[in-house]
Amino acid sequence: MSELLVSGGRVLRPDLTVERADVLIDQSSGDIAAVDEPGALAGDDELDASGGLVVPGLVNAHTHVAMTLLRGYADDKPLDAWLQEDIWPVEAELTADDVRAGAELGLVEMIKSGTTALSDMYFHVDEIAGAVEQAGLRAVLGHTAVTVGKDEEAAREDVQQSLDVAERLDGAADGRIRTTFQPHSLTTVGEEFLREFVPAANDADRPIHLHANETSDEVGPIVDEHGKRPLEYADDLGVLGPDTWIAHGVHVDEREIELLADTDTGVAHCPASNMKLASGMAPVQDLLDAGVTVGLGTDGAASNNDLSMFDEMRDAAMIGKLAAEDASAMAAASVVEIATAGGAELLGFDSGRIEAGANADLAVVDLDQPHLTPAHDLVSHLVYAASASDVRHTVCDGTVLMRDRDVQPFDEAAVVQRASEHATALVERAAE
Ligand SMILES: [Zn+2]
Fold this sequence. Notes:
Blueprint: E1 3-7, E2 10-12, E3 18-20, E4 22-26, E5 31-36, E6 45-48, E7 52-56, E8 58-63, H1 79-91, H2 96-112, E9 115-120, H3 125-135, E10 138-141, E11 144-145, H4 152-169, E12 177-179, E13 182-183, H5 191-203, E14 208-212, H6 216-226, H7 230-236, E15 244-248, H8 254-263, E16 266-269, H9 271-276, H10 284-289, E17 294-296, H11 309-324, H12 332-347, E18 362-366, H13 378-384, E19 391-396, E20 399-403, E21 406-407, H14 412-431
Parallel strand pairs: 1-6, 2-7, 8-9, 9-10, 10-12, 11-13, 14-15, 15-16, 16-17
Antiparallel strand pairs: 1-4, 2-3, 4-5, 7-18, 18-19, 19-20, 20-21
Helix pairs in contact: 2-3, 2-14, 4-5, 11-12, 12-13
């Protein structure tokens, strides 16, 4: 049995207090074996955390990891125009190899920024699963189904594929990969398909992940057509429940917040994307106050434009205060909570806390930096002052994925080079 000791640092405990402690990891099970006072534990291998803070690995609860290839390709446009004029035409040209190259780039970025789990929505999912397996991260993956603009047969095939991919890949990478059934949204998948396939997903105990209530433009048509709010419509279709989480939840009214709480449906809050696309301000403090499980997500790199959960935490705190018109809303502790334990709960992983028995998914943040001095409140620092580049080590499932900024599972320079080449060729093809 191999045991790894993360030693010499301070540790962020589940109650968000900080103490000097060592963390012992059982690498054969991938779990945290013990957390104890400095010097009390011993391992076969050591990871030096001196001058650092050991935090739970960050959980990116909503992303499209392969969209790194479109980073900076089209900015400064509203969601509808951005998707139809820029993103979808290029995505139509994406090959499986492109998706692999983009996914590897995104996963390297995640490892370098202390993220250990992600919930992804995309296509060519086998390529993403392959990249996740190599990366050593945890992920919830799925094939995203869209039926608008397709004939009946192609539409049906796409939704069926979402179910099939979820069944085939669930439990892959030694259980580090789980899956969801993924209707893209309540407006991009036709009602007849939702009526047919959502019960099938529920019968198969398949969790559901979809975009919902992202912009006001998508709320109006649902109210007009169905005479009810989007999440009431979703509830009638059987979409809501404890194994479902929606991405965004920006335009939700009081009844919908109650509905989310009553059905135990989660929300992946994506503040940077919501700001960049001017989608609106999610009432995230209200969601938390109502008892809704909330995670934090970057969304795709094309609408962010990075995958740093540190940036996302800062954004969540800032926009959460503006949305609530209250500077005490989305306090640092709440933000750290949604970026770790909240996200882990949505994704169904026993991660998000540094505690014996939990998955050994963690990051060590280097505190010995001018911009993190003095150390009055380290939880505050994580949200308001720390950056992705402050992460020194990243560990997932007991395996060291980055040691002293050196990414272990990939040749970082080769991944960057390949992604850059694929991105250039992709936009050239799309322009033809
Ligand atoms: Zn999204």
